[in-house]
Every structure is written in C-alpha cells, then in structure tokens.
Specification:
This protein is mainly beta. About 10% of the residues lie in helices and about 50% in strands. The protein contains one helix and 15 strands, in the order H-E-E-E-E-E-E-E-E-E-E-E-E-E-E-E. The strands form two sheets. Strands 1, 2, 3, 4, 6, 11, 12, 13 and 15 form a nine-stranded antiparallel beta sheet that branches. Strands 5-14-7-8-9-10 form a six-stranded antiparallel beta sheet, with helices on one face. A hairpin with a 2-residue loop joins strand 12 and strand 13.
Length: about 220
C-alpha cells in the first residue's frame, strides 16, 4: 500500500505561513461565471488561468512557488518537508462542488495533487488527492490530527504520468464525494467540518514535483 502524504509535517507549516501572508492581502469575493458543472448547480467562480488573478495567493520562495503562466496555475514544490498550497480568496463556503483539471509537469510521480475543502484554519480541513502513479486519497485533518477517510488506493481511472486528469469533489452536508475524469471514486460520510475555504495543493512527498492546474470551477449544489 502506498504511504499517505506526511500532511501534518509537510502541509501544516505552509498553511500557517500562507495564513500570515493572506492577512496582508485583500480577499475579493469570486465573481459569477457562465459554465454550469451539473444540473441544478449554481456556478460561483470559474477560472481558466488565462491571466494572473487576485483570486489566488501567488508566491515564490525557497520551498517552491505558485504562479500563473501559459494559461495554467503552476505549483512547484522543490522537495523537503513542505507541501505547497494556494487558497482561493473569499469564502468561507459550506456545500460546494469543486472541479479542476490537473497534470504533473515534472518531478517525482510519488506525489499528491488535488484540492482542499472546508479548510477552517491551519489544523482543520478535508483533503482530496490523486497521484501521478495512479493513487487516490481522501483525508481529514481535525485539530491537527489526520485521519484517512479513503485510500491510498490504486485505480486505473487515473491517467498516469504527465497526462491530464479532472478531479471533482462534492462536499454537501455530511457527504464527501470524489470523482476523477467524470468517474466516481469514493463517497464517505463525515460532518466534523461544515464550512471553510477551498484551495489547490501539490506535495512531492520525498522529492520535488510541479503540478499545473486549469479550468477551475466552484459551484453550489
């Protein structure tokens, strides 16, 4: 079985750092956009990353960077003990559908890339991830303690290597659902966290990795 990412050791220090950075930034509310992800849903925000936007926290440092270029948002984790995370400004949100196209650009395939949902603070959030070598994971971090709700599990539904995948997450009430490439992966029930922020993240686990995100969509079920 593939090991879970060292989230407590890797992601939380960066969340704390980015939280301090975000305090000095304006937090515009995402605007409406035409696309509709599912029948009956209300689109809250759509971003094709055609140009840099104040909706995302962009940065560059020793641990890596978050930059918009060539029509995608790139998260480059240089390795070590830190995963990279960039929050969508605005919120908090309660019931949401979040969908994004993502691909590994370079680095280790022993990575994790995906979404955070209902991120209340640096120690409370749900994490939904896939890897370039075909695994998926659903994780809860509650008061700094992590709990794997599903996985890590291998599936052939994930396109491996540097191929593009679409990850879709539905957080509605106590139901947490995860799909890839429009195919259902897993559903779990958990109502510890009911509202919070949304973010993109990348983790090279034990090496550097670069992930590109595109066609991000946030909707209300």
């Amino acid at each position: 079985m593939r090991a879970s990412p060292p989230i407590r050791a890797a992601l939380l220090p960066l969340l704390l750092l980015l939280g301090l950075m975000a305090e000095g930034c304006t937090r515009p509310t995402p605007t409406l956009s035409p696309p509709t992800p599912a029948v009956g849903s209300e689109v809250l925000f759509h971003d094709d990353f055609s140009r840099p936007s104040s909706h995302w926290l962009l940065f560059e440092g020793d641990s890596g960077s978050a930059q918009v270029r060539d029509g995608e948002l790139y998260l480059e984790a240089t390795g070590g003990e830190t995963a990279l995370y960039t929050p969508l400004q605005g919120g908090p949100w309660e019931d949401v559908i979040v969908s994004v196209q993502l691909r590994q650009v370079e680095g280790t395939q022993n990575n994790w890339m995906g979404l955070l949902c209902r991120q209340a603070d640096a120690e409370n959030y749900y994490l939904f991830a896939i890897s370039a070598d075909g695994y998926y994971l659903m994780l809860k971090v509650r008061n700094g303690v992590q709990e794997a709700l599903a996985g890590p599990t291998y599936t052939t539904l994930i396109h491996p290597g540097r191929a593009r995948n679409r990850l879709t997450v539905r957080c509605e009430g106590g139901s947490l659902q995860m799909s890839v490439n429009e195919r259902f992966l897993v559903n779990r029930s958990d109502d510890d966290l009911r509202r919070g922020g949304v973010a993109l993240f990348a983790d090279g686990v034990r090496g550097g990795t670069t992930v590109a995100f595109d066609d991000f969509l946030l909707a209300r079920p």
